[in-house]
């Protein structure tokens, strides 16, 4: 028996498929395997969208975006079957003519998906009422304009994923018209009865010859799938001699030059040790760690052992960075023994907390040493050509935390040095951290009072991973998704936050719709006007 399944495992390729019987349907005799393969998923999506979610009825109006694609064509066929009034968008003139000839869609009902003129056009043709149903696969402004097209009690069905993945916002005022917004992201395995029923109803329509696959059917051998440019539906047909392109496993991003050294001041501190471990994961091969206690301290010995074990060439110095001659001696020694320094992170600190009235001058000065002469020495003695010069500063300099006037002063000086260094040309950035949980001074119980104060003042700590994600930004520069993809990097989880959606700006090439949709290719890139801003920010 020729059968096909609408299985949750349909992304898996099998010669023999075994699944829940509810998900199988016999293929009608007049339909070939290839046609059946082209029929099921697109009709399932269109049927579920228009009939299950939107409850489209005879005489109602529907706007189908990207209508020349597989789902778009299926939606046209189903809308015509039920007797709905159809408006469509397409990306090219070729697709427009295709829909006019193949589905008899009136020319004045076909709009471009490459601009937003469809919104006015649809309003004009519906006497400003809007449409009862939108089947949407466009994104960004086109999605928002389409949402505005909702007639009273209109149903908006989202089959695209872009704005959902980017967690973008929706205008709520449209809901006053009684509109609904639904997404087609169903969890198939939890809805087997419904999935099977829809498949059966689709196959019944196919048996009655009321529906047929999207046209034209584009049959590709596996080895040609990457060059597919098409209208309609792509079917992949396996042959024994097909060469299947395989993506090599993603490489771990390598941020650090193996022929360079990276200097960390305060390099045996809590945050520094966390950063060094992360840097080694990202190809750090040579590191210079400076702290007053140096390699003979317990932390120094443990770090030296760990780094040796991981194949890192580590030079650990007892060096007070506030002492210019000590730092100069270290840099001179490194010039002989280590590859050239290409990056610096300042993570040195000392705390001497007390209320300002009770603070001795010695206590006032001690925290300033690493953060005033210390940062200045690093700034003036290290080359201008560093790839990054990152200063770990503190929000105490901004907020003024109680009992930390000295520390706050040191941090504001560090921030000022970052501004100064950038104004002179070289890279620099100071990051005003709040409280870091699980690693660093506060987490290691350095001062319970600080911990209590930070909680009392409503400071919410960030986790080690978040701290390292910030460091990643600072040492590599702010990436946008296209640059990350080009470098083979994975998008970090926080890119889903709408706060970062501006970094995910869609760019288009000549062959693609300006507004997304399933009948065109989309890729994300950084437009020129953003690139300069980002490179400034990422310094
Ligand atoms: N942890 C947090 O929650 C937090 C919050 C806001 C800001 N920050 C900032 O993050 C950075 C690192 O903090 P952390 O938690 O890792 O501190 P930490 O664990 O106390 O480490 C600081 C390190 O600095 C070294 N140091 C002090 N004075 C020095 C000097 N003059 N020259 C060279 N090394 C010196 C100390 O080692 P020796 O005693 O051996 O010199 C110590 O290992 C600091 O700049 C801090 O202001 C941290």
UniProtKB/TrEMBL annotation:
GO terms for molecular function: fatty acid synthase activity; oxidoreductase activity. Residues 3-236 form the Enoyl reductase (ER) domain. Keywords: Multifunctional enzyme, Oxidoreductase, Phosphopantetheine, Phosphoprotein, Transferase. InterPro entries: ADH-like_C (IPR013149), ER (IPR020843), KR_dom (IPR057326), NAD(P)-bd_dom_sf (IPR036291), PKS_KR (IPR013968), PKS_NRPS_Biosynth_Enz (IPR050091). Residues 520-531 have a biased composition (Basic and acidic residues). One of its GO terms (biological process) is lactone biosynthetic process. Residues 260-440 form the Ketoreductase domain. Residues 511-539 are annotated as: Disordered. This is Lovastatin nonaketide synthase. It comes from Trichoderma harzianum. The lineage of its organism: Eukaryota, Fungi, Dikarya, Ascomycota, Pezizomycotina.
């Amino acid at each position: 028996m020729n059968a096909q399944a609408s299985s949750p495992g349909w992304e898996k390729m099998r010669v023999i498929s075994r699944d829940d019987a509810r998900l199988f349907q016999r293929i009608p005799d007049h339909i070939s395997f290839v046609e059946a393969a082209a029929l099921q998923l697109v009709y399932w999506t269109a049927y579920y969208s228009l009939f299950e979610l939107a409850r489209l009825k005879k005489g109602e109006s529907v706007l189908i975006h990207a209508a020349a694609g597989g789902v778009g064509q299926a939606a046209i066929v189903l809308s015509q079957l039920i007797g709905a009034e159809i408006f469509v968008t397409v990306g090219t003139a070729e697709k427009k003519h295709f829909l006019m000839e193949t589905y008899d869609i009136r020319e004045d009902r076909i709009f471009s998906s490459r601009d937003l003129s469809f919104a006015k056009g649809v309003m004009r043709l519906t006497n400003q009422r809007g449409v009862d149903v939108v089947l949407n696969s466009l994104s960004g402004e086109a999605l928002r304009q389409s949402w505005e097209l909702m007639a009273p009690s209109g149903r908006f069905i989202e089959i695209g994923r872009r704005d959902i993945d980017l967690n973008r916002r929706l205008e709520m005022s449209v809901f006053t018209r009684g509109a609904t917004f639904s997404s087609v992201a169903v969890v198939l395995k939890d809805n087997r009865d419904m999935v099977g029923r829809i498949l059966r109803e689709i196959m019944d329509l196919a048996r009655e010859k009321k529906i047929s696959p999207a046209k034209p059917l584009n049959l590709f051998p596996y080895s040609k799938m990457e060059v597919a440019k098409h209208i309609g539906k792509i079917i992949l047909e396996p042959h024994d001699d097909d060469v299947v392109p395989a993506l090599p496993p993603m490489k771990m991003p390598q941020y650090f030059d193996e022929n360079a050294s990276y200097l960390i001041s305060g390099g045996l501190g809590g945050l520094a040790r966390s950063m060094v471990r992360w840097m080694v994961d990202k190809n750090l091969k040579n590191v210079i760690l400076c702290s007053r206690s140096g390699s003979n301290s317990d932390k120094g010995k443990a770090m030296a052992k760990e780094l040796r074990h991981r194949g890192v060439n580590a030079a650990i110095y007892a060096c007070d960075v506030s002492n210019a001659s000590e730092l100069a001696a270290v840099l001179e020694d490194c010039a002989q023994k280590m590859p050239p320094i290409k990056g610096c992170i300042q993570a040195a600190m000392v705390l001497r907390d007390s209320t300002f009235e009770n603070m001795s001058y010695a206590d006032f000065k001690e925290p300033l040493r690493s953060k005033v002469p210390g940062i200045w020495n690093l700034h003036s003695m290290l080359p201008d050509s560093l790839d990054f010069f990152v200063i770990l500063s503190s929000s105490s300099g901004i907020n003024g935390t109680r009992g930390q006037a000295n520390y706050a002063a040191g941090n504001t000086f560090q921030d000022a040095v970052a501004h100064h260094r950038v104004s002179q040309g070289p890279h620099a950035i100071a990051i005003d951290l709040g409280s870091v949980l699980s690693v660093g001074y506060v987490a290691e119980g350095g001062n319970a009072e600080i911990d209590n104060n930070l909680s009392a003042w409503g400071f919410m700590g960030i986790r080690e991973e978040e701290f390292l994600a910030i460091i990643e930004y600072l040492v590599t520069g702010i990436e946008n998704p296209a640059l990350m993809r080009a470098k083979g990097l994975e998008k970090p989880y926080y890119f889903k936050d709408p706060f970062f959606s501006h970094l995910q700006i869609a760019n288009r090439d000549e062959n693609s719709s300006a507004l997304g949709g399933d009948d065109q290719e989309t890729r994300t890139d950084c437009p020129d006007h953003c690139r300069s801003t980002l490179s400034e920010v990422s310094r």
